[in-house]
Amino acid sequence: MSRVRYPTPNSRSTLLQTLAQGISKVSECFEVTGVGLGVPGLILTQENKVIFSPNLRVIEGIPLKDELEPKVGLPVAVENDNNAATWGEFRFGAGSEAKHLLFVGLGTGIGGGIVMYGQLLRGAQGAGGELGHVTVQATGPRCACGNRGCLEAFASGSAIGRRAREVASERPGSALGQLAAERKLLGEDVTDLAREGDEGALSVLKEAGRWLGIGLAGFVNILNSEVVVVGGGAMEAGELILKAARREVQLRALSPSRELVEVREAALGPDSGVLGAAALAQDLTQKEYALDS
Ligand SMILES: [Zn+2]
Fold first, then answer.
1. How many C-beta neighbours within 10 Å does residue 105 have?
2. What distance in angstroms lies between residue 135's CA and the mean position of ligand 1's atoms?
3. Separation of alpha carbons 212 and 9, rounded Å
4. Cα 74 to chain center, whole Å?
5. Torsional class of 73: left (φ above 0), alpha (ψ -120 to 50), beta (otherwise)
6. Where are the alpha helices (DSSP H) in 7-80?
7. Taking all residues of the chain, what is their mean pLDDT, rounded to a whole number?
8. How far apart are the first and last CA of the chain?
9. Which terminus of the chain faces fewer neighbouring Cβ atoms within 10 Å, N or C?
């Protein structure tokens, strides 16, 4: 694999130029037949346009496929980053033997993706699979999307950080409390302290795992998935979150779905989205080739 990284562009033209530059750079070492983009935001399938990207505003409103294809002379597949990660784990990772899979990415927010019958489910407009924004508590904390009590507001990396700050103020003498007195606690601090055995940090991760499991139990009841893959930065905590999530799924989901489903950690880490987008580009290239011949 060849990697190039660029700083986040701040204008539409620099963004497109940077993408084209990256593609041409990779083309120096490999024969490139298609391009897959994993984009953080909601994408309308028909127009291949990003309509909402709170963390990368510059990309909103750009018909990426139409703009980029003439620039690079290659077919371009555009996909939501979590759908791309779902596809990566389905094709090459923790769910490669399954036909019905769910992916939940625990990062700053919570993203998701659904594969049923070996197909990525995008819904009528392409906006489906937003598993992080299912309400799990009507009066819960405000979510970044504007709703209250979304799964994201309880089990994401930012939610873990926020809850840790609350627990730290309740237990000022604990390792969590002492670190909080020095600086703002982040999700990754909680994992480090939990591994060192801090009770407060362990309880924060367990609580996030329980909320995750509450969400997953609902998804499993609806979809009867064989595998649930959990990825994203917060999976540094691995079993410290997943054990509680699995328990909740077993307590709450219906039989026989709960006996079938396996909740696993993602196998490809940050590469699941990259590999998934590449596989989607390959599928698109083959489809376009078949249509042309
Ligand atoms: Zn939300």
1. 27
2. 7
3. 33
4. 27
5. left
6. 12-27, 64-72
7. 93
8. 30
9. C
Ion ligand 1 contact residues with beta carbon within 5 A: 133, 143, 145, 147, 150, 152
CA atoms within 13 A on the CB side of 155: 35
Model pLDDT for residues 89-134, shown as the tens digit of each residue: 999 999 999 999 999 999 999 999 999 999 999 999 888 999 999 9
Separation of alpha carbons 168 and 185, rounded Å? 9
181 φψ region: left (φ > 0), alpha (ψ -120 to 50), beta (else): alpha
> Which has the closest alpha carbon to 215: 254, 244, 248?
248
C-alpha angle with apex 116: 254 to 292, nearest 5 degrees? 175
The pTM assigned to this predicted structure is: 0.92
CA of 151 to the centre of ligand 1 (A): 7
40 neighbors 58 (Cβ within 8 angstroms): no
Distance from the alpha carbon of residue 130 to the mean position of ligand 1, in angstroms: 9
- Write the DSSP assignment of 98-132 as a string of letters: -SSEEEEEESSSEEEEEEETTEE--TTTS----GG
Interval between CA 141 and ligand 1 midpoint (Å)? 10
Cβ burial of 50 (10 Å; 0-12, 13-18, 19+) is buried
